[in-house]
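Final report, Chapter 2: Outcomes

The project's central promise was a pipeline that accepts a single protein chain and returns its three-dimensional structure in a standardized token representation, suitable for archiving and comparison. That pipeline is now operational. To close this chapter, we reproduce one record exactly as it appears in the project archive, with the input sequence first and the structure output second.
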Amino acid sequence: MFFMGKSLQKTEISSAHQNWQNKTILLICLILCWRVLYPAISPLDLSPDEAYYWDWSRRLDWGYYSKPPMVAWINWLSTSMFGSNTWAVRLPAALLSTAGLWFVYLTAARLYDQRAGFWAVFASFATPGAAVMSFAMTIDAPMIFAWTASLFFLTQAIWQEDQRKSIPFWLLTGFFVGLGLLTKQTMIAFWLLAFLFFAVSPRHYRLLLTPWPYVAGIITVLMFTPVLIWNSEHGWITFQHTAHHFEPSKTRAVLDLKSFFENAVSQIAILSPLTGGLTLIAGIVSLFSWQRITDKERFLLCFSAIPLLVIAILSFRQGINANWPAPFHVTGLILLAVCSESNRFFQAGWLRKAFGFFRHGVFFGLFLVIMIWLSPWVVTLTDIKTEMFSRVMGWQELGHEVSELMKQHNCGKELFLLSNRRQITSELAFYVKEQPVTYRWTGPERIVKTQYELWPGPPKHDAIFVTYSHEVLPNNLKTFYIDSRMLKKIHLQDGKVFNVYLLKS
């Protein structure tokens, strides 16, 4: 009877685990269908960054001004298959961000159980930050995908009982970290955090005495080597741009409380208020319980609370972009799901009550995500003008207007498009008819501030120049053009106003 009861209990546990896995698969399939459909029905144009990265894809290379090449390669692949349209540009963001959710599940299920995996996925999906990241085709979606995949394969490598079976997982970890590094140079933080865990883990520090972490690191370096060669040939421009982000502002105080609180508020808002607050509590409580928790929790802390603490300290001296800490929230949400849904932890009464709000936080986050999805139509129907939506509205209308002006003033002569703003230059490249090559004007000296200055400069013949209405024509245009005249002032429905000039060479 004892053995029958034990066998029945194992069967029930196995059935429960399978049930949670089936729920996760269904949830991810529903998310994928919606995310693929949404860009096709959304009224939002490409943001300037999306158009900029798409323009990179027309000139494939091993490196670009501000980023490694992966975002351009992905854009090229998608638009080669489905055409250079808004849906094709945004499709990879939907696919990669959803694939990342599957790796979140696999990581949580590998460390704990399928129930924790399901709620980690649900919590990761039901955040405002994820809603934006899965829609906009910037570097964030491929970066988070590579991060979550690397995280899963690293856990597989670390927690293999037979170390010989861990070798393929070490190799896959090195490969996916390499993919992440080809997406964003700050992916190198993954290996820094991994080695931090090895150093502080009483059980796994011996892995540093084996060759496999170093072999995985070598794979990552080899994959990134062509980018290093490209940068050496271009004055290390990508690294100069990255270093610029970490320079403290000369106008800021030594301890900038405003920047600190802005970073804290932005991170909680990205996760949604309740989920963000609970994630913060889970991280702080786990850090203070360092001696009592297991290596699995220490692993999650090394990839979440500890780097987030470093960023919080850094925010005292400089501004922090809201998307910088995004990879660290992946493990933070896994830790929160485990604290809230697993019986592993026996917290004080007030903590149990606090984590009892976890599911409420997830569903409130889902409500916010739905509001974000609906907001483009609300803005369109009510004619609300906001700076956030101004970035993703009106560009198609501008492209149509400029296309008509180019057609009217061609007069048998070849015209090209020119602007003093990177945002306008990239949007015109995408939305003007036939998607012509566009150029950014910086003056005869062509100081490198964007990717456009690394490409050949504008030809010396007539041009259409587009700029914001509050800006005047640059004086140094006279070195290239003998005459200029205003063609049209374009008022867009979203409130943006542009001046269009015809420049005569």
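Archive annotation: The beta strands are 416-419, 438-440, 463-468, 483-491, 497-504.
This record, like all others produced under the grant, will remain available to the consortium after the project formally closes.
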